UniProtKB/TrEMBL annotation:
It is found in: Cell membrane. Its main location: membrane. The lineage of its organism: Bacteria, Pseudomonadati, Pseudomonadota, Gammaproteobacteria, Chromatiales. InterPro entries: Alkaline_phosphatase_core_sf, LtaS-like, OpgB/LTA_synthase_biosynth, Sulfatase_N. Keywords: Cell membrane, Manganese, Membrane, Metal-binding, Transmembrane, Transmembrane helix. Residues 295-567 form the Sulfatase N-terminal domain. CDD domains: LTA_synthase (cd16015). Mn(2+) binds at E303, D517, H518. This is Sulfatase N-terminal domain-containing protein.
Length: 707
């Protein structure tokens, strides 16, 4: 009996480890629920904690399974090696618990920034330790100290109170173990091991059904944050890692649709009628607005600039320079980002690709070469192509993606000589724009058209900026004054650059787009809080200057519109709309973690994992988002939404999103003389004749297509 008791004592480590994990997860969830109590309806608290217990049991079981096997091996191993293996087992338990405490301690700061538990972003940032540690030291020192303090206390308590190795064996160690000497104990011990493993396996699966536990089984709310609280942060991160390895399939999340129906619906929504390449189903020619001299193109991608900060968009009016540009240029007042990360903004503005539940194509393997971008098509037409960034261009895989898809020149932090101010994310926006001005002058001197993408970084957490002349209103009230100063500084630097650019020789023949990549963060309890995707966008130096455009639009419409304005006649796979034209329906779409929203006029449909669908209305003026009763749900809108999100996955996986490579010609430099539109373009132009009426934009009538 003593021997049997000695054997089972070896599993004390597993038992203590298992219940310690459950306690940590429970305490963390309880604290987060108290913090976010206003977001959680009282009748849903039981669902939160019961579903959370299910996830916690699964997580603790997964982590306990290898430990239980190690404990069993340690019990039967030859005696001289036993102490080392038992110490290793205890070390495994202590390290695992400490890492879990670290992730849970970091969770409040992550929620405060992203309104969700740590997920794939948590992992993606870890890949860039220099930038992350610099950001923590300069803007989140309190979070860092609290997390490290929690880890230190955890290690101290574990070393003091956690079960220590007991150098005993259930069967007395001999040079060779004789099973016949204790057959009953041998039988009982092995049966007990199988029982422990079986119980842990069931707990890890979280269900006796065909499929193991996944977040969709415990989600119950339309509030993304509330759903994420059901998980623990360890499970959330692990699930994100699994999906990153598998690359999420829209079909597995939202359901299926016949391939031809997907293509037909996406084609119809693009309002193009001639598709000449069956292998590339969306490849088509968009008749350009500009049929005269080719224009240069400069895109300024502003970091984390939501519409709520822009005065002309009924925001807090801390961007006076951008407000002036809205008066001068073609300003879009109802344009929406496709996502919440910079790489998603790059994806939309530079490639026109539809958003998806997978990572941005900037980071995916199959899109690193022969994937359509503005740089790719313009390089084929003789343009110089360049990316200018104040930080390290390798971040988020930007450099690799750009070099593989048409950008011939990358200018980043190492190329900026003697920057006046260096922050965690690189040189200040003033340094960036000073460098950009020099680069554009050099491009202009080569007597070749050029395309340049300029990506700012000063308005990025931890919001480090140099001294400057602030234009914040004296009575300005803010929930984050440091962030607002960074926004105001970024606006100041932008205004300085545009003022200088207007005096330079490259200004006259260049179309400028200023657009945000995304808002600084997402607020709202809706499955997709649409108002948090509202961003500013202004096109300068076009025939549409001094125009406020109130049409609903998406980031994916901008690259199509830009090619039209600069006079490109190339066939492209982009499905966005050319905003120089008028269309019967206005639409936008966005991806928020695993939820996909499609808006048409004032109707919203949101696709969620497990085939769940939410319908609602969205007022572009008041930004009010309300749910629709089931009796008025628009079924056709769901089909459009499903077709678009499925097409993005299909186009990526089957490599359908590329331009048609044409035979090389002797000269790749486009003529600076007025060009004649080809018969193919004329035919395509006739196909949109019904869409060429004037459009009324806030009281002003503007020609949409110039015949």
């Amino acid at each position: 009996m003593r021997a049997l008791s000695g054997y089972f004592s070896q599993f004390k480590l597993v038992i203590v480890f298992f219940f310690t994990l459950l306690a940590i997860f429970l305490v963390s969830r309880l604290g987060l629920a108290m913090w976010q109590f206003e977001r959680i309806p009282s009748e849903q608290l039981s669902l939160l904690f019961l579903g959370g217990l299910r996830v916690d049991l699964s997580t603790a079981a997964y982590l306990s399974l290898p430990l239980s096997l190690l404990v069993y091996i340690a019990d039967w191993v030859y005696l001289p090696f036993k102490p080392y293996l038992q110490k290793f087992n205890r070390g495994y338990a202590i390290v695992a618990i400490t890492l879990i405490v670290l992730v849970e301690a970091a969770t409040p700061a992550f929620i405060n920034q992203y309104d969700v538990r740590p997920n794939r972003l948590f992992i993606e940032y870890i890949a860039y330790p220099q930038e992350v540690f610099s950001m923590l030291l300069n803007g989140h020192i309190a979070t860092l100290v609290i997390a490290l303090l929690c880890c230190a206390i955890t290690v101290f308590l574990l070393l003091r109170f956690f079960p220590k190795p007991e150098f005993k064996t259930a069967i007395k160690a001999e040079p060779k173990y004789n099973v016949n000497k204790a057959p009953r104990l041998f039988f009982v011990s092995n049966i007990s091991l199988l029982l422990v493993i079986f119980v842990l396996f069931l707990a890890a699966r979280g269900t006796v059904g065909h499929r193991p536990l996944n977040p969709a089984l415990v989600y119950f709310s339309q509030d993304t944050l509330v759903n994420s609280l059901v998980l623990n942060s360890t499970y959330s991160v692990a699930f994100a890692v699994k999906n990153m390895a598998d690359e999420k399939s829209a079909v597995s999340l939202y359901g299926e649709m016949p391939k031809q129906q997907i293509i037909d619906l996406v084609r119809q929504a693009s309002y193009r009628s001639q598709f000449d390449d069956e292998a590339l189903p969306t490849l088509a020619i968009n008749p350009p607005y500009n049929t005269q001299k080719r224009k240069n193109l400069v895109i300024i991608l502003e970091e984390s600039l939501g519409a709520r900060f822009v005065g002309k968009l009924q925001g807090t009016a801390i961007t006076p320079e951008l407000d002036k540009l809205y008066e001068q240029g073609w300003g879009f007042t109802n344009l929406y980002a496709t996502g919440t990360r910079s790489v998603r903004g790059i994806e939309a503005v530079i490639t026109g690709f539809l958003p998806s539940p997978s990572r941005s194509v900037v980071k995916l393997a199959k899109s690193q070469q022969q994937f359509f971008t503005l740089a790719d098509v313009l390089a084929s037409e003789g343009y110089q192509t360049q990316f200018i960034y104040g930080g390290e261009s390798h971040f988020d895989n930007m450099k690799s993606f750009f070099l593989g898809n048409g950008f011939s020149d990358i200018v980043d932090f190492k190329d900026i000589k003697q920057p006046k101010f260096v922050a965690s994310w690189g040189a200040s926006d003033e340094d960036l724009f000073n460098q950009a001005d020099q680069e554009l002058l050099q491009l202009q001197q080569k007597q070749q058209p050029f395309f340049s993408l300029i990506f700012s970084s000063s308005n990025h957490d931890p919001f480090e900026i140099p001294l400057y002349t602030s234009s914040l209103p004296q009575n300005h009230v803010s929930d984050n004054i440091k962030r607002d100063r960074a926004i105001n500084y970024a606006d100041y630097a932008l205004g300085q650059f545009i003022a200088k650019a207007k005096t330079q020789p490259y200004w006259q023949d260049t179309i400028f787009l200023i657009v945000a990549d995304h808002d600084v963060r997402v607020y709202g309890s809706e499955p997709v809080p649409v108002k948090s995707f509202h961003i500013p966008a202004v096109i300068l130096n076009s025939d549409f200057d001094h125009t406020f455009d109130s049409r609903l639009a998406s980031q994916i419409d901008l690259p199509v519109t830009l090619l039209s304005l600069i006079g490109s006649q190339a066939a492209t796979p982009m499905t966005g709309l050319d905003l120089t034209k008028k269309y019967p329906q206005q639409r936008a779409m966005m991806q928020y973690y695993d939820n996909f929203a499609y808006i048409e006029n004032d109707q919203v449909v949101i696709l969620m994992p497990g085939g769940k669908v939410s319908y609602g209305q969205y007022d572009v003026n008041s930004k009010a988002q309300t749910a629709l009763p089931a009796s008025t749900e628009p079924s056709l809108l769901k089909d459009k939404a499903l077709a678009h999100v499925l097409f993005s996955s299909m186009a990526y996986q089957q490599q359908l999103y590329r331009r048609q490579v044409e035979p090389k010609i002797q000269s790749t430099v486009p003529s600076t003389e007025p060009s004649t539109v080809s018969s193919t373009v004329q035919l395509a132009k006739q196909s949109v004749a019904l869409l060429t009426e004037p459009v009324t934009v806030q009281g002003a009538v503007q020609p949409i297509v110039q015949e």
